[in-house]
């Protein structure tokens, strides 16, 4: 493996998993902290982390209930406030003072909230297909599948199912790319003898309860907290989560915001697109 596997304890006693890319000799630049989407995990960032760990440490976290982290016995703890507490605990655990945050979807929302609460931790931010408003079409789509207990007899079957479900977001992926994004999303279940989603399906219960509370948080003040922080925002042109209108408003609110829109990508870009790599390279080089 090109990374070290480590754990830390949450404030309420869960064992939470993370990956560390890079060596003690690759710490010349600010570390990078990768935060994944709602049901995803550290595996999504493997290629990204390898690319940028030559001269800096790159950390990728599994939130509670995802990947190799403990599942929470109380589904009410699957909420942004708890995730923020876990991230603060992680930052203290690794003695990280100033980092580049890379947030995909939920990870971007958490990055904005963290910047509002504790800007001193931030060297820069990359927001991957997320902003301070989630389009209702994308939000409804996500709420419709999160927590469904889908299972497949083989990883190949899972790949085909993922392709069928997400082809509109990735119309030009190769078979190898479909497998690469599918493998982190599933894990083998010894008891049932099949592959299941690599997260606690109780997250779906928590999400539905939170949506039913109908107390939407205004995220624009969190985004405005990024005004003094170098920020690159990436949008998939086919995204049903980050609308073109919100993307334009983000630029108006923060005129120095660096933006990139990727064709043939929905929610979310993979950050390895040929058009994205030089833009991200330049952003990382200056931060």
Annotation keywords:
287 residues; 11 strands; 10 helices; alpha/beta; eight-stranded mixed sheet; three-stranded antiparallel sheet
Quick gist of this model?
This protein is α/β, with parallel strands linked by helices and 287 residues long. The chain has helices at residues 46-52, 80-93, 106-117, 136-145, 155-166, 175-182, 202-212, 220-224, 244-253, 276-285; strands at residues 3-9, 15-21, 32-35, 58-61, 99-104, 122-128, 151-152, 186-189, 194-197, 231-236, 258-262. It has an eight-stranded mixed beta sheet, sandwiched between helices. It has a three-stranded antiparallel beta sheet with strand order 7-9-8.
Q: What is the strand and helix layout of this fold?
A:
Blueprint: E1 3-9, E2 15-21, E3 32-35, H1 46-52, E4 58-61, H2 80-93, E5 99-104, H3 106-117, E6 122-128, H4 136-145, E7 151-152, H5 155-166, H6 175-182, E8 186-189, E9 194-197, H7 202-212, H8 220-224, E10 231-236, H9 244-253, E11 258-262, H10 276-285
Parallel strand pairs: 3-4, 3-5, 5-6, 6-10, 10-11
Antiparallel strand pairs: 1-2, 2-4, 7-9, 8-9
